[in-house]
UniProtKB/TrEMBL annotation:
Domain named Radical SAM core: residues: 49-270
Details of cofactor binding: Binds 1 [4Fe-4S] cluster. The cluster is coordinated with 3 cysteines and an exchangeable S-adenosyl-L-methionine.
Cofactor dependency: [4Fe-4S] cluster
InterPro entries: Aldolase_TIM, Elp3/MiaA/NifB-like_rSAM, FeFe-hyd_HydE_rSAM, HydE/PylB-like, rSAM, rSAM_sf
Amino acids binding S-adenosyl-L-methionine: E163, R182
Superkingdom of origin: Bacteria
Species this chain originates from: Clostridium gasigenes
Residues at which (3R)-3-methyl-D-ornithine binds: S138
The protein's name in its UniProt record: Iron-only hydrogenase maturation protein HydE
Record-linked PROSITE patterns: RADICAL_SAM (PS51918)
Protein keywords: 4Fe-4S, Iron, Iron-sulfur, Metal-binding, S-adenosyl-L-methionine
GO molecular function: 4 iron, 4 sulfur cluster binding; metal ion binding; transferase activity
The keyword Iron-sulfur is annotated on this UniProt entry: yes
Length: 366
């Protein structure tokens, strides 16, 4: 029965919620292997054996939000806060470009210091210097107008995990935050024209397979270009410090299911996955992941951007990270790809808005 459902997923990229739940409830070693095989075959059909690199710049760990699981939540008074200056950020972009990264991911807490004006300045400066490089933002929830200003300044993509598509679970872990607003932000980003990346954590305390089916369905309905999935990992200075984190096995299962349901999606094998298992990122790639995000942040701040315990690569210079990750990708039998790496369905749409600073030609980039 389970292989029949996996075949259906492979052939039609969809199935019912009941069948998804059946797969999650009944997966054993043999059927997991089959699931991963089908996921791999799907990625080979869409992106081949390529794995895309993105340079991650963690530019602020100030945050006004209080997500229960996160080490930089506002109520963690032990967090050693920092902000990179605009010059620091441009330096990271310079290093990234020299190392061959054609996409930057600017990620941070929800930090009111980075107003729309400041973000527009940062985006404009990077785009003026590197018009062919893509900018991905990951700054949490902002207004429609704010997203629009950053898009018009030249930002291309936005990562905003929905975290969990189950309202009760969302509210349990996000005191004072709105489940509806988070989702609304994703629809807004999509409407504005960003390539969007929702995503969720695997193994949140109290999360069931039914909740994970909700996540799979939400992602499918949203039709995103990217999707970020990683295990929940407890942070020592949060209320969830003593909880059990998500597993590699469950995370790779979810990666494989997301790949089967969304063949075109750009799917990172995350640092969090690499942090709970030395071979975590390789396992994520084999299960259908096709993006890695090596760190470009200055080593002096890496430890401080501490969302969870045991984060890897905090001491390595950007160039070392680049080499390490490249060797890992090759070692797992895949090929490093250092172009901008836009979503393939997106490329065929060839969306170029004249009012937006996008000087590259889509055809020339791939
Ligand atoms: N502030 C922004 C971006 C930075 S947080 C935002 O929240 O969208 C980026 C992601 O880190 C979050 O979406 C969350 O899924 C993940 N994260 C935070 N704490 C974590 C933890 N303890 N374990 C695993 N992932 C975590
Ligand atoms: Fe802030 Fe993001 Fe951490 Fe939530 S997950 S506390 S929004 S940095």
């Amino acid at each position: 029965m389970i292989k029949k459902y996996i075949n259906k997923l492979y052939e039609t990229n969809n199935t019912t919620d009941e069948e998804l739940l059946y797969i999650l409830d009944n997966l054993d070693v043999d059927s997991k292997e089959y699931l991963v095989e089908k996921s791999h075959a799907t990625r080979m059909r869409t992106y081949g054996n390529k794995v895309y690199m993105r340079g991650l710049i963690e530019f602020t760990n100030y945050c006004v939000k209080n997500c229960e699981y996160c080490g930089i939540r506002v109520s963690n008074k032990k967090a050693d806060r920092y902000r990179l200056t605009i010059e620091d950020i441009i330096d990271c972009a310079d290093i990234g470009d020299r190392l061959g990264y054609k996409t930057y991911v600017l990620q941070g807490g929800e930090d009111p210091f980075f107003t729309d004006e400041i973000m527009v300045e940062i985006i404009t400066k990077i785009k003026d210097k590197y018009p062919n490089n893509a900018i991905t933002l990951s700054l949490g929830e902002r207004s429609y107008e704010s997203y629009e200003k950053m898009f018009k300044a030249g930002a291309d993509r936005y990562l905003l995990r929905h975290e969990t598509a189950t309202k009760e679970l969302y509210e349990k872990f996000h005191p004072g935050a709105s489940f509806e607003n988070r989702r609304e932000c994703l629809w807004n980003l999509k409407k504005i024209g960003f390539q969007i990346g929702p995503g969720f954590m695997v193994g949140l305390p109290g999360q069931t397979n039914k909740d994970l089916v909700n996540d799979l369905r939400f992602v499918k309905d949203l039709e995103p270009q990217m999707c970020g999935i990683g295990p929940f990992i407890p942070h020592k200075d949060t209320n969830l410090a003593n909880e059990i984190g998500g597993s590699v096995d469950k995370t790779t299962t979810m990666l494989a299911l997301i790949r089967l349901m969304n063949p075109d999606v750009l799917l990172p094998s995350t640092t969090a996955l690499g942090s709970i298992d030395t071979q975590g990122r390789e396992k994520g790639i084999k299960a259908g992941g096709n993006v890695v995000m090596p760190n470009l942040s200055p080593t002096s701040v890496r430890e401080k951007y501490s969302l969870y315990d045991g984060k890897i690569c905090t001491g390595d210079e950007a160039a070392e990270c680049r080499l390490c990750i490249e060797n890992r990708i090759k070692g797992a039998g895949f090929e490093v790809e250092i172009t901008r790496g836009d979503n393939i369905a997106w490329q065929t749409k060839k969306v170029i808005k004249n009012d937006v600073k996008r000087t590259f030609t889509l055809e020339g980039d791939y």
